[in-house]
Design brief:
Ubiquitin-like (UB roll), single chain, 5-stranded mixed sheet, 19% strand, 109 residues, 2 helices, alpha+beta
């Protein structure tokens, strides 16, 4: 996979940043965490804390794999759950096809 992958991140403060994929970034969470985008990733990517909750932009929702059951269950209990756009970034494997993805960091619980 290419390390040239870049995504656009809208922070909790409303700032827009472009971040690049680095070595060792296999998931979206790793990319966001290593680029200091406000993702705590407290559980280290085990889908057990929701501190990597993001909103995928509407135009990208159908272009990435859907939520699986464990992710769906955790997110539905989130105060800021959006049935269409909410995702745990730890559950999204990065691919070159995600170049140009836009997302927003969800509010903290």
């Amino acid at each position: 996979m290419s390390e040239g992958l870049q995504i656009t991140v809208i922070t909790r403060e409303g700032e827009t940043n472009t971040v690049m994929r680095g070595t060792g970034h296999d998931t979206l969470m790793q990319m966001l965490f290593e680029n200091d985008q406000g993702v705590e990733a407290a559980c280290g990517g085990c889908a057990s804390c929701a501190t990597c909750h993001v909103y995928i932009s509407q135009e990208w929702v159908d272009r990435i794999p859907p939520r699986e059951q464990v992710e769906d269950l955790l997110l539905t209990y989130s105060e800021h759950f959006d049935d269409v756009r909410s995702r745990l970034s730890c559950q999204i494997q990065l691919t070159d096809a995600m170049n140009g993805l836009t997302l927003e960091i969800a509010p903290e619980e």
